[in-house]
TrEMBL record:
This is LysR family transcriptional regulator. PANTHER family: HTH-TYPE TRANSCRIPTIONAL REGULATOR, HTH-TYPE TRANSCRIPTIONAL REGULATOR PERR. Belongs to the LysR transcriptional regulatory family. GO terms for molecular function: DNA-binding transcription factor activity; sequence-specific DNA binding. Residues 5-62 form the HTH lysR-type domain. It comes from Alcaligenes xylosoxydans xylosoxydans (Achromobacter xylosoxidans). Keywords: DNA-binding, Transcription, Transcription regulation. GO terms for biological process: DNA-templated transcription. The keyword DNA-binding applies. It holds the Pfam family HTH_1.
């Protein structure tokens, strides 16, 4: 049995903490200030410690009260979101996506607005993490977009999301009047993405550069590596899919585009439970995704 105080008491506390007033909480909850005061006193008795300092015409949270208010707000926000999902119109649907962080931030996120405009009856719930997700165990997730590899097991259908070009990227100021791209890469600060399928050491070997890579910056997210390159901190070896906006705006350039061959790799994968592939909301999202990636 869960040891949770009466929800009525929690609701009174949350309202008073958020509004900073017993009177305002009473008005919001259609109660009297005296009733709010009694409910909060009852909650304080449960915890055996004060949650508010009573001032003249106002109340302030104690340190314990502030911490509890912060945690309670997050819990109630999550509860409210869950209730909203359940109470969607009959035609409404929730599509739960689990996505690699940089793909979500640099590619998918900027396009989700267009998807929701075309399909307003599908509500997207997006979570991100770097580790591949096992959809057989995580039944609450509909679709996983993973980086590097996908969980391969019976009951999961996996599709690669096309090859990505991985190239040296830097701010135009890095190049300036330096025309020898090979020498610049050998001598300048390099930025490495820790999870990348292609390391600078791999890239040097592919291009016959015998010098050791001078890696001075290392990040665990492609998005961070690209931002660092934009700021002129070094040369990043990253996917042009993630840097499309920066390249279009001229904030980044592909270094040695005429001299070095592009490295192409399948790095992102779309996964869905096999028995759910024909569910309309999943089909709609998959077709939209593949169309945006020019894969259909």
């Amino acid at each position: 049995m869960r040891r949770i105080p009466n929800f009525v008491l929690l609701r009174a506390f949350e309202s008073a903490a958020r509004l900073g007033s017993f009177a305002a909480a009473a008005a919001e909850l259609s109660l009297t200030p005296s009733a709010i005061s009694h409910q909060i006193k009852e909650l304080e008795d449960v915890f055996r410690k004060p949650l508010f300092y009573r001032r003249h015409r106002r109340v302030d949270l104690t340190a314990e009260g502030a911490r509890f208010a912060d945690s309670l707000t997050r819990v109630l926000n999550a509860l409210e979101a869950s209730c909203s999902e359940v109470s969607l119109a009959p035609a409404g649907q929730v599509l739960s996506l689990y996505c690699a962080p940089s793909f979500a931030a640099k590619w998918l996120g900027p396009r989700l607005g267009a998807f929701t405009q075309r399909h307003p009856d599908i509500a997207i719930r997006l979570t991100t993490a770097a580790e591949p997700l096992d959809l057989i165990r995580a039944r609450e997730v509909d679709i996983a977009i993973s980086y590097g590899m996908a969980v391969q097991r019976t009951g999961i259908a996996v599709s690669p999301l096309g090859k990505e070009s991985i190239v040296p990227l830097c701010a135009p100021s890095v190049v300036a009047n330096k025309r020898n791209a090979r020498k610049l890469i050998s001598e300048f600060n390099l930025i490495e993405s820790q999870l990348s399928r292609v390391t600078w050491r791999d890239w040097f070997a592919m291009n016959g550069i015998t010098a050791a890579p001078k890696v001075n910056q290392s990040f665990d997210r492609a998005a961070l590596a690209i931002s660092a390159a934009v700021d002129g901190l070094g040369i990043a070896l990253e996917s042009t899919r993630f840097a499309e906006k920066e390249l279009a705006r001229g904030e980044l350039i592909e270094l040695g585009a005429r001299e070095f061959p592009r490295v192409a790799r399948e790095t992102h994968f779309f996964s869905v439970r096999t028995e759910e592939q024909e569910i309309p909301k999943i089909q709609i999202f998959r077709n939209w995704l593949m169309s945006c990636l020019n894969l259909i």
